[in-house]
Amino acid sequence: LVSREQHxxxxxxxxxxxxxxxxxxxxxxxxxxxxxxxxxLAAARMAQRAGATLLRGGAFKPRTSPYAFQGLGELGLKxxxxxxxxxxxxxxxxxxxxxxxxxxxxxxxxxxxxxRNMQNFTLLREVGAAGKPVMLKRGMNATIEEWLMxxxxxxxxxxxxxxLCERGIRTFETATRNTLDVSAVPVAQRLSHLPxxxxxxxxxxxxxxxxxxxxxxxVAGSDGVIVDVHPDPATALCDGPQALVEEDLTDLSRTIExxxxxx
Length: 263
Ligand code: PEP
Fold this sequence. Notes:
Blueprint: E1 13-15, E2 18-20, E3 26-30, H1 37-49, E4 54-56, H2 74-87, E5 91-94, H3 101-105, E6 110-113, H4 121-128, E7 134-137, H5 144-156, E8 162-166, H6 184-191, E9 196-198, H7 200-204, H8 207-219, E10 224-228, H9 246-259
Parallel strand pairs: 3-4, 3-10, 4-5, 5-6, 6-7, 7-8, 8-9
Antiparallel strand pairs: 1-2
Helix pairs in contact: 1-2, 4-5, 8-9
């Protein structure tokens, strides 16, 4: 269902009217985690000023340590919904478990399946039946074939509104958190008709790498970029070191404008 052999034309996925696909370069930005209404609104305003058309934000956070901030849960979703009302930005947010899909989908405009859940087949089936567009992040240890098969689980339930997100894979390299696999962008686009975007925030894990990695992804043909932003990264409860501040965002939007010739 997701193979390009069946659908030679590349697909466009619409998230509350916002297109992701060929001929557009969609910027999705927002806080890694929803912390407070004020922080989320400030991050959303930053995102909007930079030209973002979708707001990201985690209410359920998949943290390596059980002692790290786990997200505000449903309260975080309510904050996101309020910020959507305030800004008009549709929201993309992660769902961690199959039994929470219906509840998360009642707030979200796009459901995110994170790298750690890419092969959670029960979750994939549930999001496939939820009637909302899905952003499927590549598993950090997954091959492109496995990633596309995961997308197939969602598609099998009748949902072809799937955006693939390359967010870095595990390699022997320790200088970055993960290695952004730039080649995955054209490879996945040749094998599948689904849009492919990149996440330069979670792959590098470092603010200074976000812009170069975003550039690399765009030049490789990415249909969009998803980045973390925070009004005060030093106080962030999650992934502060990779969050962009206002001036980085200005650079990013300039980069997107300059590189749109490569679309
Ligand atoms: C995220 O986008 O908030 C996230 C946790 O990403 P990943 O699943 O790629 O680590």
